Fold each of these.
Amino acid sequence: MSDKPIEIKLDNKEVEQKLQELAKKSSSLKPLMKNIAGIFASAAEDNFAEEGRPDKWIDLSEATKKQRKRIGKFPGQILQVTGQLASSVNTYYDEDSAIIGSNLAYAAIHQLGGQAGKNEKVTIPARPYLKLTTNNINELLKILQKHLSLLL
């Protein structure tokens, strides 16, 4: 697995258009970016709590369930045996951007899915914990509209 960071870009034309309008009219977007980062963080927390939204994550394999039972960690939430992945998710914002991510080496395999383990013989299904729902997008649009209206 590569140590290269993965990047997931929000591809929503309406959000992008509002951000461009704001950039033209605003002297500082940093407070807005802080709010956007907050929405990202809340979305990730909700994804861990609900084990995927709106679609539930693929259940644990029988081998993983058996292993968790053996170590006394089953039943338990998917992706939260120790809580390290969830607690590693952090945000960053500046004048031009809002970012969310994890610095854990295994974070990408859980987000995107793929082959892992010795000789990459284990298939890990994608369980996107850094995912925005339609409600999150609508929340972003609402704060963008509010910020824009304050500038007019």
Note: The mean pLDDT is 88.
Amino acid sequence: MTYKIKFGTDGWRGVIAEDYTFDNVRRCAQGFANYLSEQGQGGRSVVVGHDKRFSGEHFAAAAAEVLAANGFKVWLTDGPTPTPVISYAVVDKKAAGAVNITASHNPPTDNGFKVRDPNGGAIDPDGLKKIESLIPNSMESVKRIAYSAGETDGRITKFDASIAYIEHIKKLIDLQPIKDAGLTVMVDAMWGNGAGWFPRLLEGGKTRVIEIHNTRNPSFPEMQRPEPIRPNVDAGLQATVDNHADVLLINDGDADRVGFGDENGKFIDQLRAYGLLAYYLLEIRGQRGPIVKTLSTTTMLNKLGKLYGVEVVETGVGFKYVAPKMVELDALIGGEESGGYAFHGNVPERDGILAGLYFLDMMVRTGKKPTQLLQDLFAKVGGEHFYDRIDTPFTGDRAAREQKILNAKPQTLGGLKVTELVTVDGFQFRLEDGGWMLIRFSGTEPIMRVYCETTHGDKVQAILQDGLKVAGIK
């Protein structure tokens, strides 16, 4: 029986050698080629890139063979390349889209097949469903040329995507003040595509960049997976203390996400990071424009929107919702709870490199440490906000579990009154203090996530535990 390929948040992910095979990657590539041709994009170019996971370059070559056989000019990255750099290459090459061989923050057993539109952004849910429907059921319907032939006749061309991206970044941010600031910047590349980027961008000045986990190792030692959340970031936080660094920047496996640690080696959670980045653009750079946020991220953005007179628009979880909305609104910033942030003037794609540079620029412009910047943010939004989440595997029928959550109708969570239930994407119980608890099923793994944000730091764990009970886990 043919393996049924299902697209999730950004595309398809699977277990290497079990369902993620060369033939299944080729089937995906044929589905994407069919989709582009149906969209009237036949004969145009497509960018193909990959990360540092097991055999990524070979899976990328397999996708390139299929796209070239379908009449597309393929621009294949000459090595592991960050997702935001691949996305910018789509715009730079005026391509019809991109294929990115990456499983991002998934466990080391996995790899993935991401697709991007002509803007370099995520394809919307309807487009993803269409691509999925066009994936052939067997290899008989997959067109393919030999890689060597494609390279010889010019249908496949390897290129360095970093050159155009760096020139573009220099138009968005002046790097010289950061180079001259004399900071000590710790970088945890999480064995991924972000390795070498901050040293390269910030060399030649007083600022010192120290990297860890900056070689290729698809088993991702010292972490469960290359995702910039605890406990995966603990080694980087300790290295920040050991090296007396001013800040820690953490990129996930494909460098589209970012995490931060303060000068004391304390993790700055993703919601606080999003609040800081929005505050930086609005207050320090004086920019204005809509803010796009998923329902799983911080209400501090709503408060900043009111203070600075900008619209805040909420979407479902995932950049397949955020990216199209950013394009529609010409938004200032878009982001989600996972640590992915996109910016005006750049492609509508999470960019963990640019986000890291903006964070450093915020420190340099204000002359403040991360802990001081957080205090400034909290002063603006009326006090400290606290966040955490629990990820737990689940078994059994998902629809039955969803019905159980709907039927629960809790009056309080962690002692706080429930004021509203929002079911835009998952189940978000809004609380009397303006906070929330969200139960949501992963689009890429058999995992259920329970998240919360509240202004009561002593109630976070109680809210999460009550959330697990609502979901039938406890």
Note: The two ends are 37 Å apart (CA to CA).
Amino acid sequence: MKTPQELPPPEHQEESATWQYGRRGPDLFERVFKLMVIAAILAAVIVPFTPLASRIKKALKDIKEPTYVTREVIKRVEVPAPPPPLPDRNIPRKDVDVAELFNGISINTNLVTIPGGFASLERLDPESYKVQFQVDVRIPKANQSVAELARINPHLPAILPGLESMLPSSKVSGFFHKLYENKTKSVGQNLTRLNKILDRHNFYDCETILELQHETTGRKALLIQSEMDVVSDGSDGDRMSRLADYISMSDNYQPFTSYAWNKLSKTPNPLLARWEARLDKANADYAVKGLSAEKNRQLKATIDQLKLEIKDLKGRSSLIAEADPFVVISLLFRNYEGTNPFTPQIGDYAVVVHDQKVYPAICGDYGPSFKMGEASLFMAKAISEKATPYNRPVSDLKVSYIVFPGTRVKPFGPPNLEDWRSKCIGFLNEIGGIGAGFEVHKWDDKFKKAVPEATPSASPTSVAPEAPKAQ
């Protein structure tokens, strides 16, 4: 035990108390720490043998590894039907199919198979694999009686009362049979090119061609019952110095007609510049080196043709389809000039009857030898305002063309529509005339000059007619 002299002085009692508390603090913490260490050791020894160990292990594993959710996807798979059994031999067959082509022709196809020899031998025989075309065409008969003609146009017997007396002695023209012979030949030539074969509409475009002759006057007439297609050809710089593009740029347009005459003025043809430009291009193409012989031949033929056409454009004038009333006759007639008295020729007068109207005209141009029933755009528009180079005014066989063969007057010249009408009336009178209540149409001549009225002071003088003014 310490003596009183060893105790701290009174002024240091507070510091001594603090020191003594500090000494007790570490002892308490040491005891707590020791207890924790002992508890940890016991847990490490005991816990592995308890259910808690597996839970702890699972929790630690879940922390380290992500959890995936698996969904089962079921696909429905259709099992194809088993194929048919393989044949043990080839069986001959015959398949028949019926269809209609774009041009209205019904087509029946037969696929026929027959047993053959070895493939190595059959491939050498052209008869082993072939196509045979058989076209069945009904050739129409021509109508000839008043009743048959009236079925097409009920007004025709009344418009032409002389028909009734002429029909008993009339004859179905050989031109009718020749026309359908040409059509049939055209079909045969294009059998393997079905896109070029005549369609049903154009094959049956003529109802009849009758040779008529009046028993009293002896006047001959050729009656053609057909439709009306439209031609837009022709040009004449003397009368019309400009042409509408929708005419001159239309398909198959040509600036010429078979009815033509020498130019009367120096006004150039409205298409001359275009044709000269075509010639320049053809010459430039022909000058290119290294072209094939076939290409050179084609270009040379084009150049020669353009030169002839340019010469014609410079020196001649033609009818104008959009301004002159004319009909187109088939080329099949041309070969029979001088051999058949009923053969129509370019320049012959004609009348067109549709419904209750009678239109005067001339034969102004030739058309294909297997075609019948065409007229100028001017004529077509008189029948239907909807007529265009691409739209015919009459599709049914309701147009009657009465041509007066051997009536043309030469030399040809610019149309005189009043004179044409007068002559057509005269020829109609020679076959019985026009029925009561009907008249021949009077054309409006857009190129006719107005005749000034004479003044009272003017003395009558003889004045030479002026050349037509260019429009």
Note: The chain has a mean pLDDT of 84.
Amino acid sequence: MAPHKGNDYLLFREAVQGLLRGDFTRLEPLFDDQSCPDRHKCCILDWYEKGYFDQEPMALDEALTCACFLGRTSIADFLLAQGVDPSAGAGTGLNGFHWAANRGQLETIKLLIQRKMPLETKSMYGGTVLGTAVWSAINEPKPNHIAIIEALINAGARLDAVGYPTENERVDEVLRRYGAKAQAR
């Protein structure tokens, strides 16, 4: 691949550093439609199509994770269709599935379930995706957390991967409804 020149590639190099640092919130504009000048797509997809990510596989993995974090389901779907490893991109300690659960991104969760993402993969903190959703529903609640917990359980996530009872009435009601058993403390 020929060396790249110009402001577009300089912006890409800066984005790579941000992706590798897990600076996902700051990178959000690069995932928005029409962020690419003269195109009706986001910079991330434009750079993928230009081959900029060819020599940056770790940054591409993190781009998928960032898309999941931000709830950019169509971008996550595109990257998965291109063969980006759905379990990679855990430079922040969580992969895209964990981040989607944490951030309350229900549509992205549904896509990842449909794509048969592994439900029991653990983050660097030892939590499964369901465990991350439960922790987030209690500590950083978002409107879709309960629906995410239900979607994960319906997809086959193991209830014994989360501590029950949680001391959170809404979360405990859902876990109880799906058959959670009290764990010794």
Note: DSSP finds nine helices and no strands in the chain.
